[in-house]
Design a protein that fits this description.
Distance between the termini: 18 Å
Protein name: Methyltransferase domain-containing protein
Largest sheet: 7 strands, mixed
Bound molecules: S-adenosylmethionine
Pfam family, one: Methyltransf_25
GO biological process, one term: methylation
Oligomer: single chain
Number of helices: 4
CATH superfamily: Vaccinia Virus protein VP39
Order of helices and strands: EHEHEEHEEEHEE
Strand order of the largest sheet: 3-2-1-4-5-9-8
Radius of gyration: 15 Å
GO molecular function, one term: methyltransferase activity
CATH topology: Rossmann fold
Shape: globular
Number of strands: 9
CATH architecture: 3-Layer(aba) Sandwich
Keywords: Methyltransferase, Transferase
Helix content: 10-25%
Structural class: alpha/beta
CATH class: Alpha Beta
Length: 162
């Protein structure tokens, strides 16, 4: 069982689902969840800071471009909440942005997003080493860490519930 935390319109959730992986997407936006459902995903409305999911049952957590909307003081608690969802040995796959800023930013709408998604969103960019420390402190053992420069610089982290 995999949870896609901050699944948005369900692009990745649909890949899991169509590949035969039992997966559930979590997002706060009902509009996003409607798109995710239309793409074939199973969804739950909820806050990724405290995902409304059963603890210790997930084999994997996938989160792409969602932790970057969690206010910095709440990131450590969010990562601990994520750890509690995983079975021992379960895998976290996280993609989030690098940098030192926190604040409102213009965010271009993607064609698969509903038109009402605001053009400015709250972004929290992370220092690589500080974020890796928070992930380790939340109870994960780091496996792979990769930087990917695009419009923003992304950090892709794979870590295992220790
Ligand atoms: C940039 S989108 C990424 C969506 C998807 N993971 C992807 O890669 O296409 C960020 C998503 O996180 C959701 N989100 C932001 N903060 C959230 C929170 N605290 N709880 C649940 N969802 C949240 C937004 O509604 C949005 O769908």
């Amino acid at each position: 069982m995999v949870a896609d935390l901050g699944c948005g319109p369900g692009r990745d959730l649909a890949v899991f689902t169509h590949a035969g992986v039992a997966a559930v997407g979590v997002d706060l936006s009902e509009q996003m969840l409607r798109l995710a459902q239309a793409a074939g995903g199973r969804t739950v409305t909820g806050d990724i800071r405290r995902p409304p999911l059963r603890p210790a049952v997930f084999h994997g957590l996938w989160s792409s471009a969602a932790l970057l909307h969690v206010p910095r003081p709440e990131v450590a608690g969010t990562l601990r909440a994520w750890r509690s969802l995983l079975r021992d040995g379960g895998v976290l796959s996280l993609s989030t942005s690098l940098g030192d800023r926190e604040g409102w930013e213009a965010a271009p709408c993607r064609s698969d997003y509903p038109p009402s998604v605001p053009l400015r969103r709250w972004f929290v960019h992370h220092d690589r080493d500080e974020l890796l420390n928070l992930i380790a402190q939340a109870g994960f053992a780091l496996r792979t860490v990769q930087k990917e420069p695009r419009r923003m610089t992304w950090l892709q982290v794979r870590a295992v519930a220790a």
